Amino acid sequence: MAGEQKVTVSFLVDKAKKRVVLAEADSDFVDMLFSFLTLPLGTVVRLLNNQSNFGCMDKLYGSVETLDVRNFQTEACKTMLLFPQSAAAERCEDLKVNIDSTEPKPRLAYACRKPDCCSKATCLASSVSNARCPHCRETMDSPKTWAKGDVQFVKSGDKFMITDDLLISLFSMENYLSLIQKLGVEDACILEEKVMDL
């Protein structure tokens, strides 16, 4: 796919045991891993194609998908349930590798078209088009763009170590040697480096 973003990750593989001992990556990859923690449950179910195995959540999500929009208070109600957004969604949408690039984008907000409603002390907006304006009860469908803040969770330029159980720490020779020792690797020569673009 043209324009696809990639991050480079270096893996140290124990050739004898045929397992990844650790990965070394920069802040772009760690930001992507940390962004998993910001996903609402409905987004996780959607990204896993209703096969999340989170109890009955797949069936619950499927019920929202199959119910006719006329069964909801508004079309916006159905959209909010199918495409839930967290407060961190804005931070995550511009990561180098975006794990949830589906619409609607959280950067776009919708306000009421009536000038009287937005001139009030509290001009409310919705991340979902066609939500009801709390002032006049009309649909909020006037798109507004909001200023963007910093999009990274960790400092850019730092290198990190990631173990096979997703323990992340700052890369240093001391941390590296300590981890190798904990894993029982007696000879670092058995470790092979493999570099992958993800």
Explain how this protein is built.
By secondary structure, the protein is α+β, with helices and mostly antiparallel strands. The chain folds into 3 domains: 8-34 and 158-197, no CATH class; 41-84, no CATH class; 108-147, no CATH class. Helices cover 26% and strands 22% of the residues. It contains 7 helices and 8 strands, in the order ββαααααβαββββαβ. It has helices at residues 27-35, 41-47, 57-66, 75-82, 89-92, 115-118, 173-182, and strands at 8-14, 19-26, 108-112, 131-132, 139-145, 159-163, 168-170, 191-197. The strands form 2 sheets. A 5-stranded antiparallel beta sheet has the order 7-6-2-1-8. The mean pLDDT is 83.
List the helices and strands and how they pair.
Blueprint: E1 8-14, E2 19-26, H1 27-35, H2 41-47, H3 57-66, H4 75-82, H5 89-92, E3 108-112, H6 115-118, E4 131-132, E5 139-145, E6 159-163, E7 168-170, H7 173-182, E8 191-197
Antiparallel strand pairs: 1-2, 1-8, 2-6, 3-5, 4-5, 6-7
